[in-house]
Amino acid sequence: MDKQRPGITVNINGHPRPFTIRRPSEGNQPDEPSGHRPEDRPSADSANDGQPVGHYQVRSFQVSSRQTDENQRTGRQIGEQKMEKQAFDTAKEEEAAALEEADGPIISISEAVQKKKKTGQIRRSWRLPPHVKSLFLAAAIAAVVGMAFGMTMLRLIPKEKAEPSPAAEAMTELTEAGTATGGERAEGVMPRPFSIAVIQAGVYSDTKAAARAAESIEAAGVPVVIAGQKPAALYIAVGADKEGLRAVNDKYRKAVSSTYVKELSFADETKERQLDIVQKGEALYETMAALSAALLAGKGASEEEWQALSKAYGSLEKSEATNNKTVQKYAEALKQAYLALAAYKENEEEALLGKAQQLLLEALSVYMELVPLRS
User: Fold this and answer.
1) What is the spatial distance between Cα 317 and Cα 330, in angstroms, rounded to a whole number?
2) Whether residues 358 and 258 fall in one domain
């Protein structure tokens, strides 16, 4: 048996431990776990059997080395866990700092879900019910259909022409008369119908009989004129319409026993009526007949009526002259009647009204020579 070498001690964990060098022959043998190798267990039997003390010391050193390796490994794992925990804590602190920098407050996931549910409920509460939506849609469709139908009907139905007022008709006539050449209106343009109201005091077989009846009327101070020849009629007053002459007829009935009011309408298609002076004379005649009849009935005349009379006379004065003697006589009678009315405006003498009516009756008699009565 080999001789025992002197013992070597090594400080392990602050305790001296014996250390021996394993032989190469012993190193080639596999180590068995200490739990299955009885020789690794330190006991009194091994020492008594003659086993060397160094062998026990080597086994104790190996066990201590293994424990040291495990402790080191455990220390490294604990260090790594600490580093991971420190990195996790650092990342968590950075995330918390980033959230604090945001505008909104930090809320939990459960609070966010609850808030979202409440918001959805509020939004749904403001939604219109389905039947209300259908009503709005039906109203919109009805409005569109109604507008389309109305526009279609407006296009299909012809527009009614507005009837011109008397003033517009008079201005149109004056314009058309001004465009006529040679004292005549343009061909194809017919004058408007002309009618007048009169108080008739009888109809006689001829002018002689009518003249004898007219003497008694003149003696009573009533204007009178003979119109026509066979038969011949007596006219004692003239007006624009029958209604305006009823009060005058009541006034004259005391002097003239048999009277009645009638309307005279004249033919349209006559050459003389197309003359400018005749057309403007008709407008002046209507104005003077209406004004004088109203004054005879005791009614007043407004300033507008006098201005209209003056304007109509000025239009007659500007009309073109003609060589027709009958037309000249008709225009002269109109001018004299206007002067009588103008004098009455200044003096208000009733005799001037009678004179104006007499001149208007004479102008009517001459006009009936130019334009026959409508049949």
Assistant:
1) 13
2) yes
How many independent structural domains does the chain possess? 2
Question: Phi, psi at residue 239, to the nearest 5°?
Answer: -155, 175
CA distances from 179 to 165, 281, 282, 311 (A): 21, 17, 18, 19
Per-residue model confidence (pLDDT) at position 62: 55
196-238 residue pLDDT tens:
999 999 899 888 999 998 998 989 889 999 988 888 999 999 9
pLDDT in tens, 164-187: 444 445 445 544 544 444 444 444
The answer to whether 31 and 66 are in contact (CB under 8 A) is no
**Radius of gyration of the chain from its Cα atoms, rounded to whole angstroms:** 70
CA distance 308 to 341: 13
pLDDT tens digits for range 6-19: 556 666 666 676 66
Task: Indicate whether 305 belongs to any domain.
Answer: yes
Q: Are residues 85 and 183 in the same domain?
A: no
- Print the domain residue range for 64: 8-23+35-93
The residues facing 196 across adjacent strands are 264
Q: Count other C-beta atoms under 10 Å from residue 170's C-beta.
A: 20
Q: Which residue has the tokens 């507005």?
A: 162
Query: Is 135 domain-assigned?
Result: no
Q: At 112, which helix (H) or strand (E)?
A: helix 109-125
* CA distance linking residue 356 with residue 340, whole number of Å: 5
Distance CA 72, CA 42 (A): 26
Whole-model pTM: value is 0.51
Quickly list DSSP for 248-294.
Answer: HHHHHTTT-SS-EEEEEEB-SS-SGGGBHHHHHHHHHHHHHHHHHHH
* Residue 188 falls inside a structural domain: yes
Strands 232-239 vs 195-204: parallel, antiparallel or unpaired = antiparallel
